[in-house]
Structures are given as structure tokens and as C-alpha cells.
Amino acid sequence: xxxxxxxxxxxxxxxxxxxxxxxxxxxxxxxxxxxxxxxxxxxxxxxxxxxxxxxxxxxxxxxxxxxxxxxxxxxxxxxxxxxxxxxxxxxxxxxxxxxxxxxxxxxxxxxxxxxxxxxxxxxxxxxxxxxxxxxxxxxxxxxxxxxxxxxxxxxxxxxxxxxxxxxxxxxxxxxxxxxxxxxxxxxxxxxxxxxxxxxxxxxxxxxxxxxxxxxxxxxxxxxxxxxxxxxxxxxxxxxxxxxxxxxxxxxxxxxxxxxxxxxxxxxxxxxxxxxxxxxxxxxxxxxxxxxxxxxxxxxxxxxxxxxxxxxxxxxxxxxxxxxxxxxxxxxx
Length: 332
Ligand code: UDP
Fold this sequence. Notes:
Elements: E1 2-5, H1 10-21, E2 26-30, H2 37-44, E3 53-57, H3 63-72, E4 77-80, H4 87-92, H5 94-114, E5 119-125, H6 148-167, E6 170-176, E7 178-180, H7 198-204, E8 213-216, E9 228-229, E10 231-233, H8 234-249, E11 255-259, E12 265-266, H9 267-278, E13 284-287, H10 302-308, H11 316-330
Parallel strand pairs: 1-2, 1-4, 2-3, 4-5, 5-6, 6-11, 7-10, 8-13
Antiparallel strand pairs: 9-12
Helix pairs in contact: 1-8, 3-5, 5-6, 7-9, 7-11, 9-11
Bound molecules: uridine-5'-diphosphate.
């Protein structure tokens, strides 16, 4: 049985689908503050071919909530997504982020140790690298996060190293670049309120009543003046977690990997891909730069390829297509 914290959220829910597909029993733990009960309903109703897909509502900041899950189920490993992830908010209200992300994870790890569960795949981020010193960014790049969100994730990475040394708890930390797209069968997708991410914001602006798309900054030192990011498809990303679980199940040591495509796309290129997929001319407002946005973030994914055997397969256009299919359903 795999415990998935944050399994009712965007990335977590796609991972639950991937786990079900691979024949794992899954228990989702989520406080439903940002995750959605509708997503839980969808996941519980998937034909799991006799495998368990259970849901427990609870909060990681409450030790008994999470500890009771380990008492109820025989957990083999944990995939830990539950966290706040908005950079701007993390700077305005760091306490909220340290309590939820760091303290919540400490409770989870305490429950793991008390119940003798020693394997965890942790959802980390390229934000732990901070302003890039060089690109593409490999795992040797210094980790100097420039915001509270990135610092919470780096602190947890450091805690995981200490817990391995002291208690033999093995972790794989997956450092995501820009996650994009939705389930190709449109069962789950990206659903944030408010939405801050590029692709859903462009697509939302194509539906009546939505806000006009705002493009933040066209004066960066990049190919066309807009920020360049590495958009990794959410289904490809989910597959990497299955490889990471497998790696730990086979006795792999604590490790960390970048998850990206090695391709950089500018905001203007993403915008064009959205116009191509939707067949619509999308109105846009050019805005000043958004605070804290580095010009270019691109992953070197060689380590994940070599050591996990993972290769991303989907293109930016695939991600935009599935994201559009998902937004189309939601806008009805
Ligand atoms: N962006 C934009 N308009 C939006 C949302 C994002 O121009 O409504 C830009 C943002 O400034 C950044 C890129 O798109 O350069 C990716 O932003 P996103 O929030 O999707 O991911 P991040 O790179 O911040 O994790």
C-alpha cells in the first residue's frame, strides 16, 4: 500500500492514476484545503481491477491525523506531495509555509519512523536552485533558493539527509521544473484557485467571462524577451515517481533528480502553442515583469535518465492539448 499525501491535488492526482495503472494499492491523504473532493470521487471510481483506492481526510499539521493512517494500513512507501506552492504567498506569509510544508513533513516523517516505514518519494522543486548560475541546471548546481517556498523544500531535503544518516530513512527527491498538461483521458487536471500558472491562464482567457491574459515582462535577456521555462508534462512526471518508488523498493540509496525535458520554451512560444491548439486569436495585455521570475530555467535531466531509466515523451503541444481539453470541460 502506497500512501500519497496531497493526492487530491494537481500533481498528486495524476500520480494516483499512474499508481493505479501499475497495480498498486493506494491511500490518499489530503486535507482538501487545496485538493478537491470531486478529484477524490473520480479517483475512487476508476476501475482499479480489485486494488484498493482509499481516501482519508486529515491534516499533516495534526500528528494524530497522519499517524492513524499508518495504524490503519500497512504502508510500504510514501509519496509526499502535500504542500503550499505559491511563491508570492510564501514571501508574504512565511509562517504559513513553514508550518504547513516543514512542520507538516516533520509529522509525516515522525509517523513513518514510529511505524517503521523507511521509504519516501518527495516532491521537491527547481526553486531550490534559486537564480541559475548556469543553464541547463544539473543536480550539482548550488541550491540557493530566493523565496520562502524554495527554502521550505530545501529544508525538507536537508532533513531527509539527516534522517537517512540517523534512522536509515531512504528518500528520492524529485526536483520539478514547470509541470504542465492534464490526464490524456481528461479525468483529472490542473485546478488551482486562484490560478497563477501560465498555460491554464492563457487557456482560461479563451473562454467567455474570463480575464484577459497578462504576459509578465517582455524585456528579459532571452530569445524573444520573455521568460524561458522547461515545461514537463504531468503524466511524464507521474511516471518518474513510479520509477523512483521502484528504485527505493530495489534498495536504492537516498538520491535526488531533476525532472524536466531539457527544452526551453519562452512565454511567447507557449502563447503561440496555445493559439495553435485552440485555433483562436488570444487577446493579451503586456505587463511589467512579475517579481522574482528568473529569465531562464532549463533542466539537465541526464541523471534521471541514467539512474532512474526515465525519459519524458510528451511535447509542449501535448501538454497544451490535454490542458485545453480539461479547461473546456471545466468551463461548461
Ligand atoms: N506568466 C505570465 N502570465 C501569467 C502566468 C505566468 O506571463 O498569467 C509567466 C511568468 O511570469 C513566468 C512564466 O509565465 O515567466 C511561467 O510562470 P508560472 O507561474 O507558470 O511558473 P513558474 O516558472 O513561476 O514556476
